[in-house]
Amino acid sequence: MSWYTKNSVIDNVKGEGAHWTTTYNPSDAVPVSGIYKCLACKKEVTSNKGDKFPPQNHHQHTTAQGKIQWKLNIRTNTDGE
Description:
Layout: H1 18-21, E1 23-24, E2 34-38, E3 44-47, E4 70-75
Antiparallel strand pairs: 1-4, 2-3, 2-4
């Protein structure tokens, strides 16, 4: 889980757009900059739009955890909108 303080400036949005609901595999292209969470082990990474998600060997899962899948948790505003 991402942490923030009461002094953080965070806006809550409706979450429209496929980037909020799609899951991504290792080495897929990152659609929007943000903090992504692995659905299996809950580790998080910060990834920039246009880069690739960490490769399969970034971290390992047990068989019980299943495959690495990234999902957008917090979108970062790199455009200053």
